[in-house]
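Following up on my earlier thread - several people asked me to post the actual chain instead of describing it. Fair enough. Here it is, all 156 residues.
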Amino acid sequence: MIKSSKDTRYAIDSVVTHDGTKHPCWALSDLMSFKQNLGEEAYEKIDVIGIDEAQFFDDLYDFCCKAADHDGKTVIVAGLDGDYLRRNFGPVLDIIPLADTITKLTARCELCGKRAHFTFRKTSETKTELIGGADMYMPVCRQHYVNGHVVKKTAA
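Reply from S.P.:
Thanks for posting it. Predicted structure:
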């Protein structure tokens, strides 16, 4: 598992699967250094590479092309496709043409329980990259996103 070094909320050095198998996890600033960090021999033995917080990796497209197309790896990517203003966020949308399958996950609106496709930012900070959790963001449905003034009153 690879996660962005920009997101420092979690000090994770491994991921444990449902059967108890422990796999290493690295925080990297770029994906192309993954093979070097893992080692050539170990890289050849792995079949699946998981990438989290993919929106922060500028080399996501190049890495996925190399790992999947040239090295025969299955690459599983998780990341945001849009920012809190519903604009493209990072390179995640760039890899859609490379994908065999795509599953867009949703949360539940914190206000009504419907499927939440959008993120409402609880702070007035306007920086695109603002690392935070439930203290700064809440998942909301379209109705509550569009009617943000209702959300602001509830979030305050």
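The radius of gyration is 17 Å. That should answer part of your original question.
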